[in-house]
């Protein structure tokens, strides 16, 4: 009992700091999401303070519900940022699924190669991490140059694809740039899991006559699954809040073909709508929490690395 009290006393300062640094912004954002913005009172013609708004901001995003100048509730007209919400959700989920799948496949392949014993393995591991170490803004500018109208890609392929203007080409440009940058992160986490597998297991499988494919599917994949699922979890959560890469590489506009939901939050704040931006931030938080819960509860992404739960 005394040891437990000592442990609580030691971790209490850290928990207090985390509560302030992490807990307060979340609570503040949720509180702001239920407050109305300053608005024009139709009776007096004067701007008044917000007050309690209930679910108004959430309905603004989810159902594109706006208040007309006459004070009536109606559907938001084209050009209002809330009309870009569902397209941004679809684009965000599309980016998350495609990039995570590609990065998992490539990361597994790269980790398998780096796990072998060969001359120069340390140099290869260091070189692989370079794209991940480069700041995202630099990565975006680099790929913007590569995907320019007269850039490297079009010159090599002999094409004239508008990689930064055509909607689907722009989306694939973002995916390619993101996969190039973050695949080393996946490979690093998977490599850590591969190195935990005893070499004796592989030797026993080879003695029993198992093929390379059987060894991979029946030994490597099951034993590396905990590390693999944690890598997928971290990368999925990161992809769901993607912002800087599509903004710098393609466009910062909320109706851009590569606009993500995080991009809408920043754009809404730039327009001075901090309360509705807080509501959207809360929706993003709930989305990420739901995805994390599903992956941990049902898909085996157990970050505690303990079996039998």
H/E topology pattern: HEEHEEHHHHHHHHHHH
Please tell me how large the radius of gyration is: 24 Å
Categorize the overall geometry.
globular
Highest CATH level, the class of the domain at 82-265 = Mainly Alpha
Distance between the termini: 25 Å
CATH superfamily of the domain at 82-265: MetI-like
Q: Low-confidence parts lasting 5 or more residues at pLDDT below 50?
A: none
Transmembrane segments: 7-27, 91-111, 123-148, 168-194, 215-234, 279-299
Subcellular location: Cell membrane; Membrane
Protein name: Trehalose transport system permease protein SugA
GO cellular component, one term: plasma membrane
Give a description of the structure.
- This protein is mainly alpha-helical and 309 residues long.
- It has a domain of 184 residues: MetI-like (MetI-like fold, Orthogonal Bundle), CATH 1.10.3720.10.
- Helices cover 66% and strands 3% of the residues.
- It contains 13 helices and 4 strands.
- Strands 1-2 form a two-stranded antiparallel ribbon.
- Strand 1 and strand 2 form a beta hairpin.
- It is globular, with a radius of gyration of 24 Å.
- Keywords: Membrane, Transmembrane, Transmembrane helix, Transport.
